[in-house]
Design brief:
Layout lengths: L1 H10 L14 E5 L3 H12 L4 E5 L26 H4 L3 E3 L2 E8 L5 E12 L2 E4 L5 E4 L2 E4 L8 H8 L27 H4 L4 H20 L21
Parallel strand pairs: 1-2, 1-8, 2-3
Antiparallel strand pairs: 4-5, 5-6, 5-7
Length: 230
C-alpha cells in the first residue's frame, strides 16, 4: 500500500521524498488479487526491468467449473489491463526466503511449488529455486484474525476456516463479545464489512439495552447470491 499511495501522490504532482520506484529493477509482486494487479501496472509504468507475479494457489479455470453452477459467482482466470501490459504470472508459488546481498538488500526470492498437506498449502520440498529481485511488493489478501490473543484473552473459538466463531447475532462464543467483518466472515469486500458492522451494532445495542431500533441489514450467514430477508 505504501508503494501505491506514494505513486498516486507523485502522479498528482506532490513531492514524495525517497519514493519507492521500480525503475530499472527486477520486481516481484506477491499476491494475485486486485492490489497485486495495481502493483504490476505501476511497476511497468515506472520502467521495471521485469515483473513477476506470484500466487500461492492454482490458476483458476477460464470457464465456469461444474461445482460453481449459475447463479453462483464462479472463480475464473482474470486478465486485467495491468496483466496485458506484460510480466509473468506464476501459480502454485510459495515464498520460502528473501535472499540478501552483502549490503542487506534483497537480491532474490527463493520460491517453491505449493502442495496441499492436510488441507494446508505448504512449500514442496526439493522444488526450491531463486528468482532475481531488486524490489518485492507484498500484496497478500487477508488470511484471518490473529488467533492467539483472542483465544488466550477472550477464550474465543474459531471455525475450520480460521474465522471467529459466532452465532446469528454476531456474538462470539464469549458472552458480550461480538465479531463483524473479515474477522468473522473471512476475506471479503468492504461493503460486507460495512453492512455487518451496522448489523452487529444493532445486536450490541439489543444486548446492552434489551431492545433496539437500529437496522439489521445482513445476517452472518448471508451470501452474495440469494440473500436471506432481513
Amino acid at each position: 500500500m505504501e508503494y501505491l499511495v506514494e505513486s498516486n501522490r507523485a502522479v498528482a504532482g506532490d513531492t514524495v521524498p525517497h519514493q519507492i520506484s521500480a525503475e530499472g529493477k527486477h520486481v516481484i509482486v506477491i499476491g494475485g488479487g486486485d492490489t497485486g494487479a495495481d502493483c504490476i501496472g505501476t511497476a511497468h509504468r515506472q520502467g521495471a526491468l521485469s515483473v513477476t507475479n506470484l500466487a500461492i494457489g492454482i490458476q483458476p479455470p477460464t470457464a465456469r467449473a461444474e461445482d460453481q453452477p449459475w447463479p453462483m459467482t464462479p472463480t475464473l482466470f482474470e486478465v486485467s489491463a495491468a496483466h496485458e501490459e506484460g510480466g509473468e504470472r506464476m501459480y502454485l508459488a510459495s515464498t520460502v526466503e528473501f535472499r540478501p546481498n552483502e549490503a542487506g538488500e534483497v537480491r532474490a526470492l527463493r520460491v517453491a511449488e505449493t502442495e496441499y498437506v492436510d488441507g494446508r498449502r505448504v512449500p514442496k520440498s526439493g522444488t526450491e529455486r531463486e528468482i532475481p529481485a531488486d524490489l518485492v511488493l507484498i500484496a497478500l489478501g487477508f488470511t484471518g484474525p490473529e488467533q492467539a490473543p483472542l483465544a488466550e484473552q477472550l477464550g474465543a473459538r474459531f471455525t475450520n476456516r480460521g474465522a471467529v466463531e459466532r452465532d446469528g447475532d454476531y456474538q462470539t462464543t464469549t458472552p458480550g463479545v461480538f465479531a463483524a467483518g473479515d474477522a468473522g466472515r473471512g476475506q471479503s469486500l468492504i461493503v460486507w464489512a460495512i453492512a455487518e458492522g451496522r448489523a452487529a451494532a444493532a445486536r450490541v445495542d439489543a444486548y446492552l439495552m434489551g431492545s433496539t431500533e437500529l437496522p439489521f441489514p445482513v445476517r452472518p450467514s448471508d451470501v452474495a447470491i440469494g440473500l436471506q430477508p432481513a
